[in-house]
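Hey,

Quick one before I head out. I ran the complex with potassium ion overnight. Inputs first:
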Amino acid sequence: MKQTTVSAAQMQAYDKYTTETIGIPSTVLIERAALTVINTVAAGSFLLENVLIVVGTGNNGGDGLAIARLLHLKGIKVEVLLLGDERKLSADNKLELAIARKYHVKIGRTVKDFRDYTLIIDALFGIGLKRDITGKLAEAVKKINASNQPVVAVDIPSGLDATTGKILGSAIRATTTITFGYIKSGLVSGDAHKRVGKLVLKDIGIYAPEV
Ligand SMILES: NC(=O)C1=CN([C@@H]2O[C@H](COP(=O)(O)OP(=O)(O)OC[C@H]3O[C@@H](n4cnc5c(N)ncnc54)[C@H](O)[C@@H]3O)[C@@H](O)[C@H]2O)[C@@H](O)CC1
Ligand SMILES: [K+]
């Protein structure tokens, strides 16, 4: 795996190349991303007693839903907090949500107190974040940070611009960030040092066209 950094646009192009030109279904990549996250989390010192997975409407949320399902099927107590407009789910997110619901994963729209969880997994936004996080979503981000609970960010802490590392409105403060395929430049620049925590790079089968 190359250690050079990539922009969000480059990473999106690699995703597209892998899924469209090579033909690996995006749900295979999501499953690999989810397996990687649960294995990395299990190998760490996190307490998996009561896990909250915060998911958004895009494919980062799709990763989160797959993580929730895999943990749930291992008998770990998990809860999903689904944030954003459910009518705007990406196709893969919709599929992962339907699968999670069939396995009776607990999925809610609100949380009483973020301090009730032993681990929070952040799958709100990945490299698709385009503008400032505002309103209810920004409130949730601030409450998660204020909870001081351990947070594992999926691909990138939500709210961080994947290219510049600038905080867009507000951003999750992660204990550990597990990023897929390549280190996005925003994980090592701008405000990244305030938000990323320990950075872990994992291969999930996305490669640049020249590989
Ligand atoms: N094939 C792929 O593209 C893969 C993607 N993966 C995951 O998917 C992520 C990228 O997924 P997406 O491109 O769907 O992007 P995201 O999941 O980052 O989110 C994009 C969604 O959020 C909305 N949005 C953007 N900024 C917003 C804001 N400020 N407030 C409210 N809504 C906002 C967009 O309109 C879009 O619906 C990666 O970071 C990675 O975690 C991996 O699962 C591997 C495969
Ligand atoms: K995230």
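The radius of gyration is 16 Å.

Talk tomorrow,
K.
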